[in-house]
Design a protein that fits this description.
about 80 residues; alpha+beta; two-stranded antiparallel sheet; 2 strands
Length: about 80
């Protein structure tokens, strides 16, 4: 999701709950009030992005895999 679209959605939500489903751990998860991480259709972990990364569980493993791939691509 382009950053400008995400910022527009944040501005216009006006107290409404917004729900996003994604398999990409980009900008979206870092701004979410709550991240619900699921595996095989079951909730495995829940919290903010920072809490889940610090917990170093299943969410953190997946986030780090994606972050490493992004960093490797931008290094070239």
């Amino acid at each position: 999701m382009p950053a400008d679209l995400f910022e527009t959605l944040r501005r216009i939500r006006r107290g409404k709950t917004m729900l996003f489903s994604t398999h990409r751990y980009g900008n979206l998860v870092q701004h979410a009030n709550t991240v619900v991480f699921m595996q095989d259709g079951k909730v495995v972990e829940q919290g903010t992005h920072g809490e889940l990364v610090q917990k170093d569980g299943a969410y953190a493993v997946m986030w780090k895999l994606q972050a490493q791939a992004f960093l490797a691509a931008t290094a070239h």
